[in-house]
Amino acid sequence: MEMEIPYSIKPNPVTGIPNGKLGIWLFLASEVMLFGALFSTYVLLRVGADVWPHGYKLLNVPLGTVNTMVLISSSVTMVMAWASLKMNQFGKFRLYLGLTILLSFVFLIIKAFEYGHKFETGIYPATSTYFGIYFTLTGLHALHIICGIIVNSFLWITGRRLWQKEPGRLTNRIEYAGLYWHFVDLVWIFLFPVLYLL
Amino acid sequence: MSWEHEGAEDIKKHVRVYITVFAALATLTIVTVGISYLHLPTHLAIILALIVATVKGSLVACYFMHLISEKTVIYWILLACFVFFVVLMLLPTFTSPM
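YS: structure for the whole thing
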């Protein structure tokens, strides 16, 4: 027996928003705490250290800058995918979401290249406190990118069927996937200067 | 006004906003990288980098995540989240030896 999920399109009268939106924001609030705890750890380690290396001497700033641009662009294509659905343009939606997934892979490939280079030169998380927190923070962030790719790919593949049946639900799903994706972008906006530039 | 009940015309206006925000984000990325090449004193560098990152983050949150026109319930969730986040950030300063 199939049961309809309540308030997946229409706003819940209690909150004024669809249930999914409340759900994703609560999840993002918990994510702020997860990354917040690690940022707090970074501050503690840095304040407590006698010397702290300059990130730009240890990491590849141009590559980090390119990756920042890649992630910002992917946020724009993500929001454009949602806007396309709002404007009833399914073809454009597929294009923009596809571009978002592609850019996510570009980000991961560049990150893997950076990691690979570090490992080749014998630098691991255990090398120093700085690299310990660098690998933890960027590793957790990369894990979020991978999760985003999985969700977005699922929506890209199955989107057509839902669009034909319930377009409003697909539009909302894309909005929530987008909220998550912008959050991942937002985290990188802080990670990049903190780890690479300071 | 909520974004949920808008027509295609309104969305077209938002698309223009998204492009502007993208240009601002790209410019600010170049600015923050540029500042890092000046090798300013650490305290000043940290303050400047965090200011630029906060502006960029706010742009993403306000426009891409639509927080500029969201429902009150989400603001309350985020306010609670913000309070705990500030506590998290202040903990190291309270506990580290000065």
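YS: worth flagging: The radius of gyration of chain A is 19 Å.
IM: good catch. Also Helices of chain A lie at 19-48, 55-58, 61-86, 90-120, 129-165, 167-197.
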